[in-house]
Design a protein that fits this description.
The protein has 10 helices and 9 strands. By secondary structure, it is an alpha/beta fold. It has 2 domains: 152 residues, Alpha/beta knot; 83 residues, tRNA(m1g37)methyltransferase, domain 2 (Trp Operon Repressor, Chain A, Orthogonal Bundle).
Length: 251
């Protein structure tokens, strides 16, 4: 998979994407990510990429041409049109489900806005979808782009050591992950649940599933209800989930 990020701050993006799991995956050739400076695609001698908005208002607006030129350059590099995402607080909320869907694409181009945003005409021209990482406003789209790149990139083959690294974690199957523990077995008088050191794998899996249901009911009952409606639970789990939700409503 290849991800291209169009930004005014490529160094900021590179700093994050060169570290940890994503950085190792890039160096190993498991994942291709390129950060492009939009200023490199302006014809203005001062490298300006913004101007005052028509109709008035505070702040500056990113112009169409530098963004479009950057996009066109990437299209030429890869030989096709990538799937274009614009990071925006007006976009569809990002989710693990959408990350999995995006992983199936060969090329993604993520546009990071700045200042007061981007001229609508270039968005209408090239953007396939707008994505938000939450109901709040940031100073630019870079942090959101990094979130999307990380969430999608880690699902790509070979980035994580085993598929189980993400199939057993929060949100993958609609539930939150169960609590986890490591050594020492006792810390500040708090013991690791005995079942986890019993060596009985069937009991451990049963405990983990039960804990996953309890965590989801307690912290995100909306997710548990969705899992029930979507048929992601077996009959026994459906009964237990209903009990947990009723217990929360009674409090």
């Amino acid at each position: 998979m290849r991800i291209d990020i169009a930004t005014l701050f490529p160094e900021m993006c590179e700093t994050v994407l060169s570290e940890s799991i994503i950085g190792r995956a890039r160096r190993a050739g498991k994942l291709e990510i390129h950060c492009h400076n939009i200023r490199d695609y302006t014809k203005d001698k001062h490298r300006r990429v913004d101007d005052t908005p028509y109709g008035g208002g505070k702040g500056m607006l990113m112009q169409t041409e530098p963004i479009y030129n950057c996009y066109q350059a990437v299209c030429e590099m890869i030989g096709e049109k990538p799937h274009v995402i614009y990071m925006s607080p007006k976009g569809t909320p990002f989710s693990q489900k959408r990350a999995g869907e995006l992983k199936a694409l060969a090329n993604i181009f993520i546009l990071c806005g700045h200042y007061e945003g981007v001229d609508q005409r270039v968005l209408d021209e090239i953007v396939d979808e707008e994505i938000s990482i939450g109901d709040y406003v940031l100073t630019g789209g870079e942090l959101g782009a990094l979130v999307v790149a990380d969430a999608v990139g880690r699902l790509c083959p070979g980035v994580l050591s085993e598929e189980v690294c993400f199939t057993e974690e929060s949100h993958y199957d609609g539930l939150l992950e169960y609590p986890q523990y490591t050594r020492p077995p006792v810390w500040h008088d708090r013991e690791v649940p005995p079942v986890l050191i019993s060596g009985h794998h069937a009991n451990i899996q049963k405990w983990q599933r039960e804990q996953s249901l309890e965590e989801t009911a307690k912290k995100r009952p909306d997710l548990l209800k969705n899992a029930m409606q979507q048929g992601k639970l077996d009959k026994k789990e459906m009964v237990r989930a209903q009990q947990l939700l009723e217990g929360i409503e009674e409090r």
